[in-house]
Amino acid sequence: MSLWDNSFKGMGERGFLSPQQAAEALARAGYIAEPGLAVAVFLALRLQRPLFLEGQPGVGKTEVALALSRALDAPLIRLQCYEGLDLQSAVYEWDYTRQLLEIRLMEAAGEREKERLRRHIFSPEFLLRRPLLQALESKDGRAPVLLIDELDRADEEFEAFLLEFLSDWQVTVPEVGTLRAQTPPVVVITSNRTREVHDALKRRCLYYWIDYPSFEKELAIVRARLPHAPEQLRRQVVAFAQEVRSLDLYKAPGVAETLDWAAALLALERQHLDEGTVEETLGALIKYHDDLKRVREELARGLLARALTHPEVGIGEP
Amino acid sequence: MSLFAHLLLFARALRQAGAFVTTQQVMALLEALPCLPSLDRESFRHAARCTLVCRYQDLALFDQLFDRFFKAGPGGLPHDEAQGWRLPRPWPSWVGDMHGLLPPTDGEEGRGEVVSRLFSYSPLEVIRRGRWERCTSEEAQVLRQLLLALRHSASMRRTYRLQRSRRRLHPDPRRTLRQSLRHGGELLGLAWRERARRPRPLVVLADISGSMEIYTRTVLLFIYALAQTWPKPVEAFLFGSRLTRITPYLRLPSPDLALEQVARWVTHWAGGTRIGACLHQFHRLWGRRVLGRGAVVIIISDGWDQGEPELLAQEMERLQKRCHRLIWLNPLLGVPGYQPLTRGMQAALPFVDDFLPCHDVASLQAVAQHLCRLPSRRPHRSPGARAGRVAISL
């Protein structure tokens, strides 16, 4: 039961007053969240559970954490996972060089007692704090946002460690003792599902699957991120991206690709889409050779015309 | 009935339908409900969805069941409906998401379209159920031999995780310092680490179409033996006119049980072969999830393919690029004078790293030998000419 006993309850409520407010705050921070995600974010803050986000690459999983940190005005601590990630680079490490120097210095000063030497060498002064340890230390009572990015890239061993970390919000350094968070951090975990993360970890989190956005949502995102682009171009770009996603591609473009593409078109100062423009800049949207071939075939079959007949495309400024 | 009781019923229904829901998750939802400023049906649904569900494959199930349990009505209060929640889901929950068997549904990662196309294809598709009896004593003997041969056959790779070691590869500052403190801070020697070794993931794709029928049983025994001996769970798929994942059955304790389950849930025995389309489906549904971390892939097929050779070549190229080593086992290689001339085999061969026979126990033992001696480097694959190293040995 200790996992679910929330011993931090006394600290008062944090976060937002309602999912609605969470969505608005995220929108101000530049992230358009659908209602389901807003509820998940709201509950993650309220229940102090980690938020576990899955979805195809490029749908904006990492962006949730960045926006959340802006919305809460809390520092962001990011732990990018990779294969071989170990405690030394995720939690803490001793500063060996300084320790060795210190030993020499103490020897020179005539310190001979082993026990005192040991205690001095392994004091917090020589501790290098890595992201997870940093996340336990909140400044002026404001909990940081801890982003554990692409957890599926880390090894299973690391997951097992997280299980303990995320339930107790504490880290034990054998030489120093147990370090515990005054205020638990707001944790966002993302995964691309290149392997399944263990259920034991996921069930302790609030789970949300971020899907490819609808036309309206994607348009809102492009509007928020590229306020200077012509409205007609934005609508056409989004309609085209949506149409491309309906093709049977190996890697459908994510929102990140749509934004890249729109930014590329903006840099080229295009006002609207035509066949030539699409052909020139397709590399910003499609990243696989086979998929490029496929999209070119479809372009020849009138993909662009199909996209531009989307009912929302013809409308001007809202 | 109270909301509480209704929720418990709902969680039980989810569980019975195969979703992974723990009591703690239900309690999390109960904890979440008072936090919500207004308990309308939508926010209740969202709250339940992010607390009760923790696996992608359970989301669709949740949506279906939720609509049955909590009807949209005035006020959005849950209706009493203890009856009629049982979903027609014939496969046991531990099977996982067997996309090959799922009827086409909308919005399933946009895959409904693919699945339905695969379903409607091929009027020639023959669907017969494999008839499986218990293993004969001869087969049991074969299995014993295979298990013996495969005992140490795992191919290993170096991970990026360091562990202590005597070999002087990476210094271990932490242990060095601790050791030196034992001698009052005098540095007597360095401690060392090296990269740990882990077994590679193994993925087996076996052809069970008509032309492979006489080998199918031996092949399945081979896969079972592999799954039993490989130190990591083996991902196994059967293909013919479509693709089916059989990984969960391979963990069953006896080969009879495993074969029985496979026979029960695989429906495309001895039909046509569309290797390209099946590989395509494999890439879309499973590739990213099972091909990570330097996987070894074994394809067992005679290369008779009714699909388009271009598609097969394209999918083979993709497969080869994403795995450490691609091994093709062809039982016909044991036939004297056989030449891999069929269109499918011709299309696939340039992307195969090893082309080996698998017609009898001796050749399968040779495969086992080969697996444990796989070099730690990827074989050289020239990108333009696409000429793979082909080892035909009889």
Give a topology summary:
The complex is a heterodimer of chains A (318) and B (394).
Chain A: H1 19-28, H2 35-47, E1 51-55, H3 61-72, E2 76-80, H4 87-90, E3 92-94, H5 96-108, H6 114-121, E4 127-129, H7 131-136, E5 145-149, H8 156-168, E6 170-173, E7 177-180, E8 186-191, H9 199-202, E9 206-210, H10 215-225, H11 231-245, H12 255-267, H13 275-281, H14 289-300, H15 303-308
Parallel strand pairs in A: 1-8, 1-9, 2-5, 5-8
Antiparallel strand pairs in A: 3-4, 6-7
Helix pairs in contact in A: 1-2, 1-3, 10-11, 10-12, 11-12
Chain B: H1 3-16, H2 23-32, H3 41-52, H4 59-69, H5 112-120, H6 137-149, E1 156-165, E2 170-171, H7 173-182, E3 192-199, E4 202-207, H8 213-229, E5 235-239, E6 243-245, H9 255-265, H10 275-290, E7 296-300, H11 309-322, E8 325-330, H12 343-348, E9 354-357, H13 361-372
Parallel strand pairs in B: 4-5, 4-7, 7-8, 8-9
Antiparallel strand pairs in B: 1-3, 2-3, 5-6
Helix pairs in contact in B: 1-4, 2-3, 6-8, 6-13, 10-11
Question: Could you please describe the fold and organization of this structure?
Answer:
The complex is a heterodimer of chains A (318) and B (394). Chain A has helices at residues 19-28, 35-47, 61-72, 87-90, 96-108, 114-121, 131-136, 156-168, 199-202, 215-225, 231-245, 255-267, 275-281, 289-300, 303-308; strands at 51-55, 76-80, 92-94, 127-129, 145-149, 170-173, 177-180, 186-191, 206-210. Chain A is of the alpha/beta class and 318 residues long. Chain A has a five-stranded parallel sheet. In chain A, strands 3-4 form a two-stranded antiparallel sheet. Chain A is elongated, with a radius of gyration of 24 Å. Chain B folds into three domains: 3-89; 137-153 and 200-372, von Willebrand factor, type A domain (Rossmann fold, 3-Layer(aba) Sandwich), CATH 3.40.50; 161-197, no CATH class. Helix content of chain B is 39%, strand content 12%. In chain B, strands 6-5-4-7-8-9 form a six-stranded mixed sheet, sandwiched between helices. A three-stranded antiparallel sheet of chain B has the order 1-3-2. In chain B, helix 2 (23-32) packs antiparallel against helix 3. The model of chain B is unreliable at 73-132 and 384-394 (pLDDT under 50). The interface between A and B is large, with 61 and 50 residues.
